[in-house]
Amino acid sequence: MVSISLFILGTLITTVISQECAPYTSSFNFSGYPANWKIPTSTVFNTDEFKQLNSSIDWTKVPNITPHKTVNGSIDQTGYSASDPDCWWTYNLCTTPKTAGINPDVTVCPEPGTWGLTYDDGPNCSHTVFYDFLKANNQKATMFFIGSNVQNLPNEAQRALADGHQICVHTWSHNYMTTLTNEEALAELYYTRKVIKYVMGITPLCWRPPFGDVDDRIRAIAQQLNLTTIIWDQDTNDWDEIPDGVETSAQIDANFQTFVNRGLNGTYNYSGTIVLEHELDNNTMSKAVEWYPKIKSAYKHVVPIASCLNITQPYLETNFTYPSFFEYINNDNGPTNYVQNTANNSPSPSAKSTSTAITSYNSLISMAVTPNILFLL
Ligand SMILES: *[C@@H]1O[C@H](CO)[C@@H](O)[C@H](O)[C@H]1NC(C)=O
Ligand SMILES: *[C@@H]1O[C@H](CO)[C@@H](O)[C@H](O)[C@H]1NC(C)=O
Ligand SMILES: *[C@@H]1O[C@H](CO)[C@@H](O)[C@H](O)[C@H]1NC(C)=O
Ligand SMILES: *[C@@H]1O[C@H](CO)[C@@H](O)[C@H](O)[C@H]1NC(C)=O
Ligand SMILES: *[C@@H]1O[C@H](CO)[C@@H](O)[C@H](O)[C@H]1NC(C)=O
Ligand SMILES: *[C@@H]1O[C@H](CO)[C@@H](O)[C@H](O)[C@H]1NC(C)=O
Ligand SMILES: *[C@@H]1O[C@H](CO)[C@@H](O)[C@H](O)[C@H]1NC(C)=O
Ligand SMILES: *[C@@H]1O[C@H](CO)[C@@H](O)[C@H](O)[C@H]1NC(C)=O
Ligand SMILES: *[C@@H]1O[C@H](CO)[C@@H](O)[C@H](O)[C@H]1NC(C)=O
Ligand SMILES: *[C@@H]1O[C@H](CO)[C@@H](O)[C@H](O)[C@H]1NC(C)=O
């Protein structure tokens, strides 16, 4: 009986995920974007829109650094100067720029005993169980979204905003940014910001480089788009679990356990931490769910990055507010001061949508949990 029930339950869950992950269409008009999951090319560079953007950038503020190369999929550090003139994170975890006028990266939550909760690589088609979990715990996080995923999964992207998560940019094609030309890097950031604005109605002010791969050239470009670079100081390596990676489940657990120990033993008594996790797939989301209660009891507070920095206006749109640190932690039973402006969710006027679907957040949420609609890009 039990095994039959489990079988039926397993089948149901599998069905739900395969439905969630079935190709679907939206009525958004995505013309004028780079090819999905591809590094932007001259097709977008030659548009009036990009040329105008490019000429709005003060390139004199962008240091002249030759893009790095990848060899067999890894970044090539051969010959790079040991003095790290470019503040290249990949080389030695540098986060304080060597070039004048460039802001340092954000690497920790300043509030003592505070875990800054971040998830990279969303939105994902199969994130419903995970988002329901965060919601049931009144927990907000900072989500670093890949532009191509937002294009493929607009309803899931909208749910993240509707649930009160902070949205940041995680590039268009998830490549090593320091290997890209100036134009490619600019387009990676700009079109991700643009698709988020188009689909969700907000303009993010933060980004995280894939693989942490950033240097002063890339920071300078991001800064001109008002994007603060957010790194981390503890990395769960959750993405590297077998079968997608090479580490065992036990090794990932050991990383989480170390971070829990640090919370308990006073390592974070005088500052907080920003932790790298992913909503990449079932493995990473399962680890997030499994470890959440232990993290909550080991740290004083678990908050999104905006709140641990007291950023109450997380987007360019000034009518969208977010709780300060004190407001967030004083509303553990559900932030009531999180003000969301549904009027703000309409696509930007320049991006004409034929959408009839997107009218309210509630309908979006129900759309996100039921099998989706429409076409594949
Ligand atoms: C989509 O947008 C492009 C450029 O803005 C426009 O030329 C095209 O007609 C639009 N397509 C539809 C179906 O509205
Ligand atoms: C972008 O601007 C730079 C600096 O002015 C220029 O060299 C480059 O050709 C421009 N690229 C495009 C695609 O307009
Ligand atoms: C790249 O991979 C090829 C084939 O596996 C190998 O022969 C070559 O040595 C690799 N190059 C570097 C620099 O690791
Ligand atoms: C950057 O922020 C300023 C001040 O909020 C705003 O006026 C400007 O348009 C923004 N620039 C970009 C490229 O978003
Ligand atoms: C706290 O735990 C971490 C991880 O186990 C360990 O590396 C560190 O030395 C411990 N610190 C103290 C003060 O016990
Ligand atoms: C951290 O704070 C706790 C509670 O105030 C205290 O008991 C502990 O000794 C502190 N640990 C360190 C390493 O400062
Ligand atoms: C999302 O999650 C599913 C299931 O865990 C996984 O197969 C897929 O690769 C993930 N990525 C995207 C972009 O949907
Ligand atoms: C991971 O997949 C299992 C089996 O399909 C499912 O029961 C579970 O809810 C999923 N976990 C998350 C966090 O999506
Ligand atoms: C956040 O604001 C509170 C109240 O003004 C202040 O006490 C705290 O130091 C601020 N924290 C940060 C990290 O700015
Ligand atoms: C909020 O701001 C956006 C963009 O600045 C604007 O389009 C929208 O109408 C505003 N909503 C309200 C209710 O003021």
Automatic annotation (TrEMBL):
It catalyses: [(1->4)-N-acetyl-beta-D-glucosaminyl](n) + n H2O = chitosan + n acetate. One of its GO terms (molecular function) is metal ion binding. It comes from the Eukaryota. InterPro entries: Glyco_hydro/deAcase_b/a-brl, NODB_dom, Polysacc_deacetylase_ArnD. The keyword Hydrolase applies. Keywords: Carbohydrate metabolism, Cell membrane, Cell wall, Cell wall biogenesis/degradation, Chitin degradation, Cobalt, Glycoprotein, GPI-anchor, Hydrolase, Lipoprotein, Membrane, Metal-binding, Polysaccharide degradation, Secreted, Signal. This is chitin deacetylase. It comes from Dentiscutata erythropus. The lineage of its organism: Eukaryota, Fungi, Fungi incertae sedis, Mucoromycota, Glomeromycotina.
